[in-house]
Design a protein that fits this description.
mainly alpha; 3 helices; about 70% helix
């Protein structure tokens, strides 16, 4: 499908049309009154998963801090990477809120 764009169209008009098309097609499987609930559920799910993964790294690293026969630095790496990930996620969440 090819769109014919008139020369007189501005970028603002094109941006508004694209945003309208995006809002019409993104959550078409949900009724209009449930779209905010779906967005909140999706946000909570993503935040939970992205906060849970660093916590799992930290727990696995702490539990196996002395038991790794392959390399003694793997549990230390897991703990360090988990803390750095949590710090980054906190800064991202604070940035989104502000």
């Amino acid at each position: 499908m090819e769109l014919a764009i008139p020369i007189s169209i501005t970028t603002d008009t094109l941006t508004n049309e694209m945003q309208n098309h995006f809002h019409e097609t993104t959550c078409s499987y949900l009724p209009r009154h449930l779209i905010p609930i779906g967005n909140v559920f999706l946000s909570i799910t993503f935040i939970s998963v992205f906060l849970l993964l660093p916590l799992i790294e930290i727990v696995i690293g702490v539990v196996f801090i002395d038991d790794c026969s392959l390399n003694i630095y793997i549990p230390i790496y897991l703990v360090f990477a988990g803390f750095i990930s949590l710090i980054c996620l906190v800064f991202i969440i604070i940035g989104v809120i502000n």
